[in-house]
Amino acid sequence: MRTAEIRRTTAETEIAVRVDLDGTGKYENSTGVGFFDHMLDQLARHSLIDMEIRAKGDLHIDDHPTVEDTGIALGQALAQALGDKRGIRRYGECHLPMDDAQVRAALDLSGRPFLVWNLQMPTAKIGSFDTELVREFFQAFSTHGGITLHIDQLHGFNSHHIAEAAFKAVARALRLAVETDPRKADAVPSTKGTL
Fold this sequence. Notes:
The chain has about 200 residues and is an alpha+beta fold. About 35% of the residues lie in helices and about 30% in strands.
């Protein structure tokens, strides 16, 4: 059972995350931040990771803590569900087009967190959502998930399309990386013997 539940409580947020890596992409995400919920739904749907996220944050002040803390908790849940990572493919990548935007994501579930970020949002907001929070989410997610994550924008002029292409590209790359490799289902995918 590659599942995990994480609860994170701070003075600013209360986050509950549940994931099933062997799901079908079912989701029930509610953070109080509409656009962010839409992106989390895309992350679940296209990774085929069942995901349930409940977040309460001090949204009357700012969306930042809710988005960042959700990334932290989701990264921790992913790492916990992966366990020793025995049998996974480990690597994943995707070039994802969405209308004017094309975003490439490549990742390694290495246990060595690193984010390379080459996206430029033309606007400061998507509706009421601060576009800089897209990077904040992926920084928290990659750090606490132990993921080397590269996200590169090849094209795009619409902030909504760029952001959504990024979430979908990461989702599709995750789908590949967490899958069990039938040729090496009993081995950790590293010459070191551990990840």
